[in-house]
Amino acid sequence: MTADWHTGNANDETATRGWLLGHFMEPAGSMRATGDLEVKWGVHPAGQSRPEWTTGEKRTTLLLLVSGTFRLDLPGDSVTLERQGDYVLWGAGTDHSWQAVTDAVVVTVRWPSVV
């Protein structure tokens, strides 16, 4: 790694639970530690879920399906991503939870990256 570029493989980011960018990345001051956005490569086995709802979210979020089937639960509705490239975008303050219907890979982008 140099100050101007970084390379890696998202599947190897187990220590950061798949997060590639965000204010919380170490070491502080590296290219990956940014307050502008957060990016995650999420590999989820079938049946994995977040049964509790995420509340009080302060970021806008984009969830993009790479493979599999993934359901996002939003207040009063659910969105199932089934076709590669399907995505859902939701704004700050929108509560949510999710479930991997089948083995699934998703990319999550949130902005800004806030504590």
Keywords summarizing the entry:
mainly beta, 115 residues, four-stranded antiparallel β-sheet, five-stranded antiparallel β-sheet
What does this structure look like?
This protein has a domain of 77 residues: Jelly Rolls. The mean pLDDT is 92. With 115 residues, the chain is mainly beta. Helix content is 0%, strand content 44%. InterPro entries: RmlC-like_jellyroll (IPR014710), RmlC_Cupin_sf (IPR011051).
- Individual helix count: 0
Task: Kindly provide the name of the CATH class of the domain at 35-111.
Answer: Mainly Beta
CATH architecture of the domain at 35-111: Sandwich
Shape: globular
What ranges have pLDDT less than 50 throughout 5 or more consecutive residues? Answer: none
Protein name: Signal peptidase I
InterPro entries: RmlC-like_jellyroll, RmlC_Cupin_sf
Can you give me a brief rundown of this structure?
This is Signal peptidase I. Helices cover 0% and strands 44% of the residues.
Give the topology.
Elements (H helix, E strand, L loop, with lengths): L18 E3 L16 E7 L4 E6 L5 E8 L2 E5 L2 E5 L5 E4 L5 E5 L3 E8 L4
